[in-house]
Amino acid sequence: MITRYFMAINISLPLQLKTRCLTMKSIESKLISRQIKPTAMRELVLKLLSEQKTAVSLADIENKFDKADKVTLYRTLKTFEENKLIHSIDDGTGSIKYALCKETCQCNPSDLHVHFLCTKCKHTYCLNDIAIPTIILPADFKLENINMVVKGVCASCK
After folding, report:
1. Residue 48 lies in a domain
2. Does residue 70 lie in a domain region?
3. Which phi-psi region, left, alpha or beta, contains residue 84 (left: φ > 0; alpha: ψ -120 to 50)?
4. Model-wide pTM > 0.90
5. Closest Cα to residue 56, out of 149, 146, 122, 130?
6. What are phi and psi for residue 151, nearest 5 degrees?
7. Is residue 158 one of the residues assigned to a domain?
8. Tens digit of pLDDT for each residue in 84-106?
9. Which domain holds residue 70?
10. What is the three-state SS of 17-41?
11. pLDDT value of position 14
12. How many structural domains comprise the chain?
């Protein structure tokens, strides 16, 4: 099974075997905790997402994997999103971005947070410590989702 991991991302087995084996076990348990069946591709995508400092698009993920099928990657992201492992962000750039949810996240409106889009480098950051303000809707309305994106220049681009 471990050989499939390395074939999928085009890395030679001996170079990273020791470090990757340790982290794959924790990644597998994270998938299982969200009722997601671990597969080689799901584990690789989750590992990639866990290494990111900013939200990434499907195209960004595709560029990291030489031999991965776009449909498989898309389905993996949708499975993760449906099981509340990641959340999607429409930051206005035309590409949906994806980022890991917090461990306790159930993607309820109370779990939502602000996102920051840098207008220079186009990276989107999760501002996990800044909650979206409470919105009071009319009596017959039901809140399902809120998307709040703040735009400006990130610390790296200043």
Report:
1. yes
2. yes
3. left
4. no
5. 122
6. -115, 145
7. no
8. 999 999 999 999 999 998 887 77
9. 2-152
10. HHHHHHHHHHHHHHHHHCCCCCCHH
11. 44
12. 1
Report the C-alpha gap between 105 and 131 in whole angstroms.
13
Written as one letter, the residue type at 147 is: N
Q: Tell me, yes or no, whether 122 lies in a domain.
A: yes
- Per-residue pLDDT tens digits for 26-83: 899 999 999 999 999 999 999 999 999 999 999 999 999 888 899 999 999 999 999 9
Return the number of other C-beta atoms located less than 10 Å from residue 13's C-beta. Answer: 12
Residues 6+ apart with CB under 8 A from 54: 99, 123, 124, 125
> How many residues does the structure list for the chain?
158
Parallel/antiparallel/unpaired status of strands 96-100 and 113-118: unpaired
Q: How far apart are the first and last CA of the chain?
A: 45
How are strands ordered across the β-sheet holding 124-131?
A: 124-131, 113-118, 149-152
Contact by Cβ (8 Å): 153, 119 = yes
Q: Which of 102, 110, 119 is nearest to 143 (CA)?
A: 110
For residue 130, the domain's CATH number is 1.10.10.10
